[in-house]
Amino acid sequence: MSDPNLREDVYTLFEDIRISFTDSGAPPNANKYTTLIVVHGTGFLGAGFAAMQALAPANNLRVVAMDRRGYRGSTPFTEPEMEDFRNGKRDSVDRLMRVFVAFLVSFIEKEKIPKLQEGGGVGVMGWSSGVITALSIFSDPDTMGPETYSMLEEYLKDVILYDPPYLALGYPLHPDFQSPAAYVPWNDPKATPPEEKYGRFAYWVSCYYEHDHTIISTQGLDGYDLRSRTNRCLAETWSEEQAKMFIDANAIPVEFDVRSHPSMQLHIRRNTERALFDKKLFPRVKLTYLYAPESPWTTVWAYLETKRLYMERNADDVRSLEFVEMKGANHFIHQISPEDFMAYVVKPLSSA
User: Which pLDDT belongs to residue 190?
Assistant: First the structure.
């Protein structure tokens, strides 16, 4: 059941592409507030952020949770577009950016939200694989166009990377992690037909894991909790109605096609490097990395690798990036402890 306090809407963009979203609305009696656009992860819809949206007015935020293309309520990808993803065409990543930017521009224009200099501004938060879309704004600026770029410069303030896995950043794994011991549900030989893999994914991704943070590294399996499931799993607590509201299992195979092809991974990696190391594009925008240390190994490894790369390149020309560890959190802290999660989100947005 949808939240009656949230506005549900659909924007029709170029080429009749539809993007559905929910909006917490402007905080009551507030002329100055920050708008946060939330981009969901693989298999899960924006509806999973409703508890966070309910807290938005009290924190002087307007939280908009969009549903990406290929997900319920938004336009599916065409077969030619899917073929382009499978072939790793550069235009596929640029197209993700164009759709996302068109949504941002439409929301800014229709809702007349306050600019940065007016005490407002826009933050973008990508959760999990949603980071691919969030970082797409750092694609080739020529594709975006100078007028759009200039407009967004007046609004964008922070991009939050909320617990992304390595595939969302385009990082090649250390060979040790190609071992069957490093469990991921899409490679589970016991899960047949494919639909069973998608069911196992919801449990695997929502469990708490007990990694040994004193010894884990990007260079080997030692210290990682590589189980397929643990005895603390959020998915076990969802009712059938909640699972239907949060999950779009039909989108999961599309996601794997979109992001996993080696050529696509190279394009995604280039965007990650632009975001981290090239502040010529949107120089005032800073990054915040929200890390959940009890998430699956794929996100824990990605955090360690990002931190390693950033520290190696720490120089005057890199973008400001704050690493924030959310103590005791797993990949779904936004649902499990929305008040705690909101506090982590508000801090970078209020200081930008």
Answer: 87
- Best CA proximity match to 161, nearest among 38, 4, 64, 63: 38
Q: Please write the tens of the pLDDT for every residue from 41-74.
A: 999 999 999 999 999 999 999 999 999 999 999 9
Ordered by where they begin, the domains of the chain are 7-173+249-351 (3.40.50.1820)
* SS3 state of residue 2: coil
In Å, what is the CA distance from 348 to each residue of 125, 157, 162, 303?
A: 11, 9, 13, 18
Alpha-carbon span 118 to 99, nearest angstrom: 26
**Cβ distance 35 to 88 under 8 Å?**
no
Q: 331-345 burial, b for 16+ CB within 10 Å, e for fewer?
A: bbbbbbbbeebbebb
d(CA 335, CA 324): 18
Contact 165, 299 (CB under 8 A): yes
Say what the pTM is.
0.96
Question: CB–CB of 22/72 below 8 Å?
Answer: no
Residue 63: enclosing H or E segment and its boundaries? strand 61-67
